[in-house]
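Field guide to reading this record: the first block holds the primary sequence, the second block holds the structure written as discrete tokens, and the final block holds curator observations. Each block starts with its own label. This record concerns CBS domain-containing protein, catalogued under organism Siminovitchia fortis.

BLOCK 1 — SEQUENCE
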Amino acid sequence: MTHIGDIMTKDVETCSLKDNIFEVAMKMKELDVGVIPIVENKRLMGIITDRDIVLRCIAEKQPPSSKVEDIMSENLFTVSPDTTTQEAARLMAKEQIRRLPVVENGELVGIVALGDLAVRDLTDNQAKHALSEISEDDGEQAIH
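BLOCK 2 — STRUCTURE
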């Protein structure tokens, strides 16, 4: 049985609460990613997605200098490194999310994306099921 710790991305770029939305957006562009975890003293405080920036900043006419904490999603679903890939896929399908922060003892240790599960060719088709469940929703929800 495969665990999240076996497939997660371990070298995760982050921003801090001191950063503003412009800085987060520039890091997303530089890294070609759509999500940046917000971390203070190694503890996961929240996550900002490109969608969060569009809906909570641009669409609400907030300046790019807005505080990260005003835009980020704070109530997150997370998994631990010892969570099975099947459990993670079920959580992603149920909660309609595409990325899960991996936390151990309150500290961010990685991130796993739905694509990470899909490329592992899970024998029980959990990743395919999760993707189909998430894709049924017209708009991607922010990570909760």
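BLOCK 3 — OBSERVATIONS
Residues 138-144 have pLDDT under 50 and may be disordered.
The radius of gyration is 15 Å.
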